[in-house]
Amino acid sequence: MRRKINIRLIQTAALAIFATLLLTVAVCYHILRNQVLDDLKSYAGIVKYIVTEGFSEEEKEELEQNHIRVTLIASDGTVLSDTRANPDSMENHGDRPEVERAYAQGEGSIVRQSDTMGKSTYYYAMRLNDGQVLRVAKDADSIYRIMELAVPYILVFVTVLFGICCVLSYYLSEGLIRPIRLIAQDVDNIGRTEAYEELKPYIEAIKSQHEDVLQNARMRQEFTANVSHELKTPLAAISGYSELIENGMASSETETKRFAKEIHTNANRLLTLINDVIRLSELDNGEGEEPLELVNLKEIAQTCVNMLQINAEKHHVSTCFEGENVVIMATRQMAEEVLYNLCDNAIRYNREGGTVLVTVKDRLDKAVLTVKDTGIGIPKEHQDRVFERFYRVDKGRSKSTGGTGLGLAIVKHILLRLEAEITLESEPGEGTEITVTFPAVRGAQFR
Fold first, then answer.
1. 365: closest CA among 440, 255, 273, 267?
2. Which sign does the torsion angle of CA 74, 79, 83, 88 carry?
3. 37 closest CA partner among 173, 117, 136
4. Radius of gyration of the chain from its Cα atoms, rounded to whole angstroms
5. Domain 207-285 carries which CATH code?
6. Are 237 and 273 spatial neighbours (Cβ–Cβ below 8 Å)?
7. What DSSP character marks residue 52?
8. What is the pLDDT of residue 367?
9. Distant-in-sequence, close-in-space partners of 310: CB < 8 Å, separation ≥ 6
10. Prediction pTM value
């Protein structure tokens, strides 16, 4: 980046130098031209008093030394006298532009270029009182000749100036890039780095992204450690019970069945954990996501409650459903996962003889799903963290009931995808109420 800025600055400097030189030459030539014509006008004012008497040889020599030529032209264009040539051999000058203007306007001027001599001849013509025209001419170097003579000096000047510009552009580009380089070298302290006012929004964005990356890295590291720990427990149990059976430690059929049941329970827990980890990974990476479609939330909720009825009975918990038809944008799998995890938690962490009430309501442009239980409740200090992966309020109870600690994390990911909101209200010993608010689709046909 610094190299590009440096090149652009040098290009800009070169263009500025070139344009300045051209403008300077043009201005100087314009000043020179006006100055020569003004001098000729002054000469003409002096010469007109003596031209009628003719010029002596000394006067002609002095005019020649000053590169001045004087010509007297009659009213019909005939050359009457000239300080450089014989008037008799000169052609009629009545059609010369400067002479024509003098006849018509009282004075006229023009500059003629000589391509072969590299000279410019400046002419000034003045009409006298008797109708004759006095013309004064002076030879001077043309603009091309001036530029040719000035080329060596210009080259030296341009070289020095260009060198200075290169050095300045290097330090300028270095100064421009320095804050950015400091940011790149010390991303961890990016907020403390001096920077331009215009860079502050980008610094804040980079800082936020950097913090997100670090947070995600820590979360992944913690997640990996938690997965390893969670897998270790059921695997150790399976390995231990199977080893007991292998070594003949199950002395009776009753013990064999008990060990087999423990192996089966831990294998199911292991399978559930693996499935939840795979699902979370899919949600994180956005893999396997089907396009959203219209689904009837009431139908899915009722199906889920019916499906979990047997599980609820095992825990001595009763379930109840109340609902209104309302359509949301989701996939059937996502809606089922949200309902299953919320209802499964409400059953799993309920008390014996407790109830789970699932309601679906249509509230204008919102679809409101509520899962309310009469379970053990969640203390205030834990309520903000229950949606974290592997976070458990009561770790012993969670493992004994077969929970993986990933259900609510899956719910949170899915609801983010569906642009839905979730709130939790709970009191220890009085139960928990979780409310999910989906954007409803108005005027849709129920499926």
1. 440
2. negative
3. 136
4. 50
5. 1.10.287.130
6. no
7. G
8. 93
9. none
10. 0.51
Q: Backbone phi, then psi, for 315, in 5-degree steps? A: -90, 5
CA atoms of 358 and 301, how far apart (whole Å): 8
Bridge partners, 370 (sequence order): 359, 435
CA separation for the pair 426, 409 (Å, rounded): 18
pLDDT tens digit sequence for 138-152: 877 666 666 666 678
Cα separation, 79 vs 88, whole angstroms: 8
Using 50, 70 and 90 to split pLDDT, how confident is the model at 447?
A: very low
Grade residue 186 by pLDDT with cuts at 50, 70 and 90: low
DSSP per-residue string spanning 177-215: HHHHHHHHHTGGGGGGS---GGGHHHHHHHHHHHHHHHH
Domain 2-147 class?
A: alpha beta
Q: Which residue has the higher pLDDT, 338 or 54?
A: 338
Residue ranges of domains in the chain: 2-147, 207-285, 293-439
Q: Class of the 293-439 domain?
A: alpha beta
For 52, 116, 405, the CA distances from 84, given in Å and listed in that order, are 17, 20, 114
Q: Tell me whether strands 355-363 and 327-330 are parallel, antiparallel or unpaired.
A: unpaired
Q: In this prediction, what percent of the chain has a pLDDT beyond 90?
A: 21
Residue pointed to by tokens 């001599």 = 117
Diameter of the chain by CA atoms?
156
Q: What are phi and psi of 136, to 5 degrees?
A: -115, 135
Both structure tokens of 58: 């000394």
Q: What is the mean pLDDT of the chain?
A: 80
